[in-house]
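[User] I wish I could look at a protein chain and see how it folds. I have put the entry right below:
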Amino acid sequence: MLILISSILAMPPSSAQWTTIQSSPVRIECALEGEKPYCRSTGVIGVPVAQASETFAKLDEHVSKMGAIAAVNRLESDTLHVVMDYPFPLDDRDYVARFAHRTEADGTEVYGWVPVVHAGAPPTDGVVRLTWLDGEWRFAPAGGQTRVTYLWQADPGGNLPDVKAVRTKAGTLAIQDIANACGTKIVSP
């Protein structure tokens, strides 16, 4: 289980100007915070918050159910090395992050992360290391289901011909992978 730690994330403020880049099967919006692009994808999955949160807290145990994640290695109780599988001819991406977990008054479970350097996950040739990647996962009650919001610093690194397409694919696959890890599906945006 992830340990509770405190972190300060440089997320877009509530006044940020979000632009919708996809409405279905998950809603994806992007905004700038300073010079940093952020995106958030949102979808409702067919399990209760407790199950979604417990699954996410043990993400490294569910990699085989996810299509966009090649590996998740737990380096410490609150630190993960995540390798994202990008299609050929693009190089895969990876990041090392320390997670903080909190529960909000309305029952929303939040897992925020900041990038860290860890000796257990040195950079790998042929993989673009996203040393700037921060963000959060939110699991909010939606009746007996869960509204999942994935917010991430959306600079995919490297030289990509169509960044919007990469952000759309990443946002959709993130929610799909959490649904798959939970043994369910996306039921609505």
User: Anything to note?
Assistant: The mean pLDDT is 89. The chain has one domain: 22-188. Helices lie at 49-57, 163-181. Residues 163-181 form the longest helix (19 residues).
